Amino acid sequence: MVSVRLPPDNHTHTEHSWDAENGSMEASCVRAIEIGLPSIAFTEHVDLTPWAVPGDPEASFGRFARHVHDGVMHVPEIDVDAYFDEIERCRSLFPDLRIFSGLEIGEPHWFPEKTAELLASGPFERVLGSLHSLQIGDAPRLLDEWFYTDRVRGEEEMNAVRAYLAESIELVESSADFEVFAHIDYLTRQINRAGRAHDPRQFEEEYRATLRALASSGRVLELNTRLGLDPMIVRWWHEAGGAAVSFGSDAHEGALVGSGFAEAAAMAEAAGFHRQADPIDYWRRSTR
Ligand SMILES: [Zn+2]
Ligand SMILES: [Zn+2]
Predict the structure, then answer these.
(1) Does residue 1 surpass a pLDDT of 50?
(2) How far apart are the two ends of the chain, measured CA to CA in Å?
(3) Ligand 1 centre from 218 Cα, in Å?
(4) What is the CATH number for 215?
(5) From ligand 1's centre to the CA of 14, what distance in Å?
(6) How many A from CA of 8 to the centre of ligand 1?
(7) Is residue 132 included in any domain, yes or no?
(8) What is the gyration radius of the CA atoms in the chain, in angstroms?
């Protein structure tokens, strides 16, 4: 049975996300209950950026190449009605689990009107703002794809990290309507996937600038457990005056819901962010 009280999982995907064919809202609920999560949020992808695909779509996007037309990838939009039908079905199946609706919006600051329209189309409770893309040359690229296809490394990689953190400031300082800044370590995933390590200390000034902007915005920093955030970044977040952290597994299938949460919770505690009386709340800095 459950031995530790885990934080809420505020970042998961189901079959309603374009890249989560193995997702299942029902299976994710079963898993959340099994491991004793107080709540789960289904934050489906909204990726509005038209990604440039300069080369072979198959080589760049594999099974998703079907969404590439004339050198541009447009992913399918979420079916909001079908999504909320499934949310309601799961809420009645699992009345003891708190189920949050939500969205993970990529680059919402580039699409203010469309983002506002989407958010007005349903009662979305947990909204994440993400940066999945950067302007590379004269066109936006999906960073996973660009890193892999163009074999980004060396100086170009260093510049990409700086550009990512700089664009993150634009995102968090924008008026886009989101509460949690997702995966600040998104680019670290790509660097690790290429077999290299990323040391945030090499970019301390840039990280601190992004975290200060995030703290001033009043938004929440996500501890994404796909990799496990470097504890140094969480300490810098506390020093920047950050008010709260959110935990997100970024699971694209039920089995991965809440993975790495015990470690992430311990790290948050060590950095000065604590569980609140209401178990579904974000973890907040102590006022003691
Ligand atoms: Zn993401
Ligand atoms: Zn995600």
Answers:
(1) no
(2) 33
(3) 20
(4) 3.20.20.140
(5) 13
(6) 18
(7) yes
(8) 18
